[in-house]
Amino acid sequence: MTADPTIAVPELAQLTLPDVPEELRADLEAGRPVAWSEPLTIRTYEAETPSEYPMYLDQRVYQGSSGRVYPLPFTERIADEAHDRQWQAIHLENRYVRLVVLPELGGRIHIGYDKTTGYDFFYRNNVIKPALVGLAGPWISGGVEFNWPQHHRPATYLPVETALERGDDGSMTVWCADHDPFTRMAAHHGVRLRPDSTVVELAVRLHNRTSERQTFLWWANVAARVHDDYQSFFPEDVRYVADHARRAITAFPAADRPYYGVDYPALAEAHPGADRIDWYRNIPVPTSYMIVDSQQDFFGGYDHAAGAGFVHWAERRLSPGKKQWTWGDAPFGHAWDAQLTDGDGPYVELMAGVYTDNQPDFSWLLPGETKVFTQHWFPIPAIGPARQATPDAAVGITTGAGVEALFAVTSPQPDAVVRILRGGEVVESRTVAMVPGVPVSVTAPTLSGDDPEVAAELVDASGHLLVRWAPTRTTDEEPWVATEPPAPEEIASVEELYLTGLHLEQFRHPTRSPLAYWEEALRRDPGDVRTNLALASREHRAGSYAAALARVELALDRLTRRNANPADAEAYYLAGLILTRLGRDEEAERHLGKAGWDGTWAAAAGYELAASLSRRGRLRAALRVLDTLDGVVGHDSRRAVLRAVLLRRSDRTAEADALLRAELVAEPLNVAVRVLLGQPVAEDAGLLLDVALELRACGADDALHLFLRAAAAAPTDAGNLGPVAHYLAAQLLDRRGDSDGAARERAAARASDLTRAFPSGLDAHDALVAALEVDEGDAVAHFLLGMLLYSSGRRADAQHHWEAALELGLRDPVLLRNAALAAYAVAHDDGTAWRRYEEARALAPADARLLYEQDQLAARLGQSPAERLARLEPLAEVVLRRDDLTIEYLGLLIAEGRAAEALEILLSRPFHPWEGGEGRALATWDAAREALGLPLADPPASLGEARPRYTAPAPVRDDGTTDYFATSLPELLLFTRESAGDGV
Q1: Which residues contact 976 (CB under 8 A, 6 or more apart)?
Q2: Which tens digit of pLDDT belongs to each residue from 607-647?
């Protein structure tokens, strides 16, 4: 009989979890974990259809890095009313723990329930109620969200593929796989339970499927339901915590200075203990803190009221990141809580970073590189905040009248020994049978908790140490704090100029470009190798192949002037990629071969070389290259796919299939492998295109039918890839000499629905360029290529293509709007920008997004409030569909002496704030009341926000520049003027 996995939640019906299926009961009762798929009905506020307009938000400040979202469509509205919806759910359970994974929401863990204590150790949100907090719009609180390659994960509101796997040790794993919609990297995460263990294990494989080096981060975002008696705990060697980008620090757990605008020492003078920021109740404003320089592997949270909590454990060498985030225990934060739940109360996020310890803090993945790691969570019973933990056990320590150690285990431990020692000598000891969920204590009444020689241990019946606590010795030396880099002309050396630019690019800085630093470096030293390669890589990624090649050749000239075998062969590798794109295959192969002399680039260069040889029909040569890599360099599933293609083309099908089946053991959801084995895969255009491009790179014959399947696949919230798939098919048919078939595919592309067709990547770029080489009059190709180039920083080129599409007679609101953006931002042609918006609105007069953008442009062009109001007022029904446009409209009413009307509208509809846009509705409320001579008053709950007690640091300085360390910026950034030096 299992514990009932429900706990009463006030004011909200608890999710009803289904019983274990009858056919799995025997396994569960025997101690084996089980998993099954069964829908879960959850009250849901739907995210509305994403915008039809591409969002070029490169300078949007999001979590301290760029909030660019293209090519992902951006969702801007959430439904005001909820309904019951069935969500696909994977249920995973063993004797002690029950989990629910939601594949349609990024494969997040939605429920983590401790059956031994009846406690939800992860915050169980009983509704799906997104707020506009995510990178691409909607985001929900609760459970565990797995964030990569950026925070909050771009695919957090997109589906993943799943598979269930029974391990040889009896474990059960729910595998989830997605493809990053930006660069199409692949991630597998497996949620695993083992027999007779409370540990929730996460097994992760991150694979850079691309030919370019990529940046990424990984944060597992765990939510914990909180109240006045909830405490976050971190290792004892944590003496300081840092804000985003380490722009500020404070002592921990007692803050010793103002932090996020709150003077904690002053609060503690009036209310002792109010400076302890490990307690939710003491933090009155939205606050992040990330631990600094801990050498320990664990942290977690503890609910003193429930006598339960959880621990996260991961090896510190890979997982240094330990963070808490809260909206704050004050009306402002409670208003945000209400945006995300219907009654489940506040929560904190206790986040674990792998290959990162701050946000933003991106690491690198080499081309083809796979990184593998694990994270572990487990519930703890009434031991208090853990003072030390391992995957086997945790220990809490209390002092006062002696020293008491309270131990909890993650699996049954018969004849375990708990003991307290001093100076290595046992002072107190007990032998006891331990089980999960039941703490065991041992007390040494004569010892002092301040004694540095005291220790507490738990060993199993065989004498193996499970967990050991001893006091941690640390210093109070303050850690470093980040500073804004000087202007390029103020930096002394070319090396520092290069490194500063690299930092800005690696960390995806939203408001500072690396170009100014790199250009200054080349002004001083035109032949600097590192800077030329950095710019060449940037130009290559934007499709500027000739310019990129010229820079690489300049770098190679210096690099090999006296040394034909440089220590770093990146220049050869990059030259190989560029020459391949230019169709100069034999030259490319020579450069890739030389790049393979360097161990850093051997795997990536070897794959590219073998793929090129395969495309040219040199099968045995390609296999020989792979023979030098397999078993020597790191795992890259692309190599297995390429070898299988080569084997099949060499009539060695049985060998190929055996290789592919072995690859599925490592990556159960690898789409390319499954396609080659004839296994079913989702009819998802993005996945099908990924596989088609990978197989085309290998020289396989399977690519064409996959392009056609992708073209026929239905568009999703991730976008519409149909038109690009047709152009890719046309390019492939042209290469095969089938010009008639290619023409049919280009005609199909032109006839396609272009809604949310946002092309990206070099393969799409090359296919669109190829289409225009065949037919310069293809207006759709001009339109799509312009979108891709604008997102790549080639904005003048994008404007040229959009204007060409218009000259060819294509009329589309998205095209006209895009041309308007370029006219304003690139050409600084205000008249054309305004005219294009007028044309777009004539085609889509009821489009609220267009109306909002046009009004934003009107403000930038200096139009008076009266002019803007006169334009908006006849369209009030359209205006009121958007919160941001409504707020603008109300501001205009107030400016024109009609504050009473503004106040009436404020009270007539709900508003949904967005992260970074807090305060807009509240400021309008205050302005309306002030204009009417009414006293300051708290806003109604329908405004979605409350008055903050403290003033947050302003993201924009008094001189109008953006704070280098700003973590959010609410302004619309589509209308940013570009200077002649901007762009790639």
Answers
A1: 59, 825
A2: 999 999 999 999 999 999 999 999 888 899 999 999 999 99
One-character DSSP codes across 52-67? SS----TT-EETTEE-
Report strand pairing: 137-139 vs 144-147: unpaired
Which tens digits make up the pLDDT trace of 680-738? 999 999 999 999 999 999 999 889 999 999 999 999 999 999 999 999 999 999 999 99
Long-range contacts of 610-615 (CB under 8 A, 24+ apart): 610/639, 610/642, 610/646, 611/642, 611/697, 611/698, 611/699, 612/580, 612/585, 612/588, 613/589, 614/642, 614/645, 614/646, 614/649, 614/698, 614/699, 615/585, 615/697, 615/698, 615/699
Q: Find out whether 638 and 368 touch, Cβ atoms under 8 Å.
A: yes
Do 849 and 862 contact (CB within 8 A), yes or no?
A: no
CA atoms within 13 A on the CB side of 186: 27
Cβ(834)–Cβ(871) below 8 Å:
no
Residue with tokens 């020579």: 590
618 Cβ contact partners less than 8 Å away, ≥ 6 residues apart = none
For the domain made up of 393-469, the CATH class stated in words is mainly beta
- DSSP H or E stretch at residue 405: strand 402-409
pLDDT, tens digit, for every residue of 152-183? 989 999 999 999 999 999 999 999 998 888 99
What's at 31, amino acid-wise?
G
pLDDT band, very low/low/confident/very high, at 288 (cuts 50, 70, 90): very high
Q: What confidence tier does 983 reach under pLDDT thresholds 50, 70, 90?
A: low
pLDDT tens digits, one per residue of 322-380: 999 999 999 999 999 999 999 898 999 999 999 999 999 999 999 999 999 999 999 99
**Domain 22-380 = CATH 2.70.98.10:** yes
Residue 544 has pLDDT above 70, yes or no: yes
> Scanning the structure block, which residue is given the tokens 């990141």?
321
- pLDDT of 2: 34
CA-to-CA separations, 115 to 93, 199, 360, 380, 934, in angstroms, rounded: 10, 13, 37, 11, 54
What is the CATH code of the structural domain delimited by 501-739?
1.25.40.10
Query: Which region holds residue 862: left if phi is over 0, alpha if psi is between -120 and 50, else beta?
Result: left
Q: Could you tell me which of 939, 955, 891, 954 has the C-alpha nearest to residue 335? A: 939
Q: pLDDT tens, 29-49?
A: 999 999 999 999 999 999 999
DSSP 801-844: HHHHHHHTT---HHHHHHHHHHHHHTS--HHHHHHHHHHHHHH-
Q: How far is CA 612 from the centre of its chain?
A: 33
Work out the average pLDDT over 414-434: 97
> 22-380 and 845-943: same fold?
no
**Is the Cβ–Cβ distance between 153 and 185 less than 8 Å?**
no
Residue 933: CB atoms within 10 A of its CB come to 7
CATH 1.25.40 correct for 845-943? yes
pLDDT at position 400, please?
84
Please, what is the end-to-end C-alpha distance for the chain in angstroms?
64
Helix orientation angle between 585-595 and 570-581, rounded to the nearest 10 degrees: 160
Domain ranges of the chain: 22-380, 393-469, 501-739, 845-943
- What is the rounded CA–CA span in Å between residue 450 and residue 472? 11
Say what the pLDDT of residue 870 is. 98
β pairing state of 34-37 and 90-93 = antiparallel
pLDDT of residue 46: 97
Beta strands in 435-527 (DSSP E): 440-444, 454-459, 465-469
Q: Hey, which residues does 406 pair with through a beta bridge?
A: 396, 441
Rounded distance between C-alpha atoms, residue 699 and residue 701, angstroms: 7
Say if residues 191 and 103 touch (Cβ distance below 8 Å).
no
Strand partners, 374: 203
What pLDDT does 3 receive? 34
Residue 846, C-beta contacts closer than 8 angstroms, at least 6 positions apart: 878
